[in-house]
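User: Can you fold this complex?
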Amino acid sequence: MTAASSTRTTTAFEARSLECIRDDRMLFEDLSFTITSGQALVLEGSNGSGKTSLLRILCGIRLPESGELFWEGDSIFRLGPEFHEHMAYLGHKDGSKLDLTPLENLRIARGLGKARADIGLEEALDQVGLYGFEDVPTRNLSAGQQRRLAIARLLVTDAKLWILDEPFTSLDRKGIAHMERLFEGHLNRGGMAAMTTHHRIGFRDDVQLVRINLSER
Amino acid sequence: MSTLSLTSAFTLLLKRDLVLAYRRRAEMVNPMLFFVLVTAMFPLGIGNDPKLIEAVGPGVVWVAALLAALLSLDSMFRSDFDDGSLEQFMLSAHPVSILVLAKVLAHWLVTGLPLFVVAPLLAVLLNVPSSAIPTLMLTLVLGTPVLSLIGSVGVALTVGLRRGGVILSLLVLPLYVPVLIFATDAVKTAIVGIPTTAQLSILSAMLVGSLVLAPMATAASLRISLS
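Assistant: Here's the predicted assembly.
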């Protein structure tokens, strides 16, 4: 077995019979799953099948019509900010200010979450390939570089659960492979992820994936 | 979360909004410019009747300040909503109401405080007696934060709408009326020379009340707008 399984703790994120209705259309019902340390939930499904809606429910931005979500046994709706310090969300929008520099953007991201002690802001930028762009206004970065900055935001907080909505948008092929290594690293450290992507995921074979296809349910 | 990191998150967000305002300072001058222009137009429109101008002076300053505040409200959450920063605030490890308070404070420092600074000049322009100018300043310093705080609830409710402008005015203006009434009444009373403690106390009470309640209402409204 891998190093990941030896460091495994009891941390778990559990969904119990979630139901989501959007504009009078049932997107999914009775959806349950559990992910534990080192596992990644991969959501599949055609456009409009409710992938983004489900991810937003998992974050706690959106409320499900019915069903519950548990973080280590406690309901996330009751935990509130206490749950949010364990999770990081990367949505369709990057959440970076274009008038600030990448370094300033990361500093805010770190301040809003629970700061990770073992990584500096410059180091995080270096890890996503933005070394040398610390002080360039984010507006002047390319779309792919802005996406990389958004991914760097995940690295600077101590979040265990990464919720990623199409994280590879506008990245080049090399960039995608590089980010996959970063995500694998997170899972190997005992992290968890819930993600959607249209790209075929090239994680190593020993990464445990929990696949849910929303269109075929 | 410890208190220390909560205060640092508050100052971090406050500084962020001030830096952003500084980097787009051309936009931030608009409310003040509006305030100055509207107030300067009134004597020209009314004609050279000093008595009449003196009578409407406090009201004109306050109505212009109120409209300038309303004009600037939409910028409070708009860009954060558009670029996804607002989602990140809702998902932060800190209570959203504290972050909202930091944003409202930054917004007031950028749009409300300049009004307070130019108000004495405009009061002179409108023939407000110099004895009443300190009271006018006091009503502005107590009243304009209330405008920002109450406004934040309205903006939070309408930020998700494509065209929230008119709805925002309809939502917020009725709630501004008490501030307007007590503030202008305080200045008019001061012109006559009667103590204004009662009006100022009520304005202070409004400030304290909205300081406590508005951030929570705004946080809840933002949650509705984002879901």
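Residues 1-8 of chain A have pLDDT under 50 and may be disordered. The first strand of chain A starts at residue 12 and ends at 22.
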